Amino acid sequence: MSQENLIKLECSVCHQINYYSKKNKKQIKERLQIKKYCPKCKKHILHKETK
């Protein structure tokens, strides 16, 4: 993956970075929020894009 398009997804509860993804930053200006599984919390929780 290219480093320019790479984003980190952080759990909104425990603040652990669990996932990496990519997005087109020219088309999508706002930060991503995806509901994904957190292994530490052992639940499906909202993950937010970090810097």
How is this structure best described in words?
- The structure is a single chain.
- The protein has one domain: Ribosomal protein L33 (Rubrerythrin, domain 2, Single Sheet).
- The protein contains no helices and four strands.
- Strands 2-1-4-3 form a four-stranded antiparallel beta sheet, with no helix packed on it.
- It has strands spanning 6-11, 17-22, 33-38, 43-50.
- The protein has 51 residues and is mainly beta.
How would you summarize this macromolecular structure in one to three sentences?
The chain is mainly beta and 51 residues long. The chain has a single domain, classed as Rubrerythrin, domain 2, CATH 2.20.28. The protein is 0% helix and 51% strand.
Report the major sheet. 4 strands, antiparallel
Unreliable segments of 5+ consecutive residues: none
Q: Could you say what the CATH architecture is? A: Single Sheet
Q: What is the CATH first-level class name?
A: Mainly Beta
Q: Roughly how many Å apart are the termini? A: 17 Å
Would you report the number of β strands? 4
Would you tell me the overall average pLDDT?
92
Could you estimate the helical fraction of the residues in percent? under 10%
Characteristic key phrases:
51 residues; mainly beta; Rubrerythrin, domain 2; four-stranded antiparallel beta sheet; 4 strands
